[in-house]
Amino acid sequence: MVKVSYEQKPFRREVMRTYGADVTPSPSMETQIGQKILAEFPGTTGSLGCAISEAVEKAVTSEGYRYVLGSVLNQVLLHQSVIGLETEAALKKYGIEPDIIVGCAGGGSNLGGLIAPFMRDKIKGKKNLRIVAVEPASCPSFTRGKFAYDFADTGKVCPLAKMYTLGSGFIPAPNHAGGLRYHGMSTILSQLYDDGLMEAVSVPQREVFEAATKFARTEGILPAPESAHAIKVAMDEAIKCRETGEKKVIVFGLTGTGYFDLVAYKKFNDGELDDYIPTDEDLAKGFAGLPDVNL
Ligand SMILES: Cc1ncc(COP(=O)(O)O)c(C=O)c1O
Hints:
Number of strands: 6
Low-confidence stretches: none
Order of helices and strands: HHHHHEHEHEEHEHHEHH
Bound molecules: pyridoxal-5'-phosphate
Structural class: alpha/beta
CATH class of the largest domain: Alpha Beta
Number of helices: 12
Mean pLDDT: 95
């Protein structure tokens, strides 16, 4: 488990332990790649890129083990397309067409799945809807990243993929509480974004938690901080409609519950959550580690 999540999300950790898992914060001293990362970045709070490297090493060095990535890759988007198909069926049942679809984007799997049938119709020219990816301002792969071949993991053991990326060495600031910390983005979504078929915005985390709080008080549902990124932008779009008087159907992906994230909610409620937006110099360090194939 990514070290910063291990510390910030103790309840997710305990669910895993309850089901019988041993949970180790990554980067760890238990793998060679973890040791190498810790030697290079002592005290790092980790990232999904580091955890992937360690998990792959553990899988390939343990008899009978396999590793499957839970985000980013095409098969994950394919699984999540069930959500898109169900959304399409539900909208059809109510006889409504979406004008805007909004989803949070970490590695891009929930968004890729949610938009799949709608993007199909958009590409075929049957629908003219807007699709908006929302990412954290502290890890802005789409909005400030480069469309380049890069490693899927910090230890550089995975194959290269062409994607919007901040560089596999990019590690978001530890004060970021809202997940969506991956340095890159699904290759399918990256191509769609590069082709102008979808938009992306980045949002600072305090505004995300403000939206989450408003949503909880209005709907009675406590959203995961990741989902609250989509909620924030769905609300912004609704406010624009209120101001212009336009009527629009806005669909957003509510990807998870916030009950495992109450440490982050506590920090927000206590005024201890701040925003960190990387500078261009911070991002340049990540880009400097992009593989030479891009030259
Ligand atoms: C609740 C929740 N929603 C969304 C995401 C984002 O992942 P992806 O972009 O792959 O859908 C995460 C990632 O950890 C998550 O925990």
